[in-house]
Amino acid sequence: MLTKSEGEFAVCLARRAIEGCIKNGIKTRPDNLPGVFSESRGVFVTLNKEKNLKELRGCIGRPYPVMPLGEAIIVSAINAARDDPRFYPVKPEEIDDLIIEVTVLTALKLINARPEDLPENIVIGRDGLMVSEGLRQGLLLPQVAVEHGFDSTEFLCQTCMKAGLMPDAWLNGVQVYSFKGQIFEEIEPGGEIMERVL
């Protein structure tokens, strides 16, 4: 778990990376970061439009701990701003209207249960999900189920669709993983940062 100050640092690092890339064309370097940021962790960076009550503007991350957290935040923040295929790249004039959210993930854990028992092994507000079948993967962060009012069955269906599978694919032997996420977000663009409890 990150401390409050480490969480604040994570969000500030994401904002600095986006501003450096979009406004100045430079990549922030992950140098001289606090200790936890050299540990490999999974992380996602989410951008929401401030003026439109959390309208998604970009979300990209790394589910697996394949790089140090500091570097993963920088790369994910830039990717969320420029490379999310669902949106046009963020323009420099938009940055001051964006709320930045960083979710640090625990390791993914395969849910060992019969397909029909999967829903009762998922806790809404605690678990995020990843579904995997062959080369197809889909991941939804824990906050997605809360924000959209999903129950555990709908959460499974939506995660399957994110993977490009049929909604009921979870009943047919796909691998379902759960994880937890620690969420830090700005209250207003560039403003105070808080840990979000679902």
Automatic annotation (TrEMBL):
Ranges for domain AMMECR1 come to 5-195
What PROSITE patterns does the record point to?
AMMECR1 (PS51112)
* Name of the molecule in the record: Protein ANME2D_00777
Q: Which NCBIfam families match?
A: AmmeMemoSam_A (TIGR04335), TIGR00296 family protein (TIGR00296)
**Would you say which domain of life the source belongs to?**
Archaea
Please give one Pfam family short name.
AMMECR1
